[in-house]
From TrEMBL:
Classification via SUPFAM superfamilies: Pili subunits (SSF54523)
Listed name of the protein: Uncharacterized protein
Organism listed in the record: Kineococcus endophyticus
Source organism superkingdom: Bacteria
Amino acid sequence: MSRTAPTPQGPRRAVVVAVGGVTALGLAVAVALPIVVDGRRSSAAQDLHADLQRVATAQAAWKDEHGTYSTSLHDLAVPTARTDVAIVSAGADAFCAGAYDESTRTALFYSSDDSWSTHPCG
């Protein structure tokens, strides 16, 4: 005759069920949170890239007309998805522009030598 351990009853069972539920919820959050954060970062990176691509296109047109790159976004009349876009440096031969997304703390830079970087150029 084998004996089995009695199953927890009453308050003990409630504690075991509650701990199991909290553990399952914690695991679900641990799995889902990076996916949500990665999705936000990916979207922000795409927006930054698009903003800087518009700056690059406008800079090329400005240089064709004026012989030098502009130091002013206002001169370029570039619509951007965010307000944190800036010309870091500009001259007759090259320019550097940067964009920053506050919500994800993502920064991206573009240099007229057609290079992309997360580190400042110029």
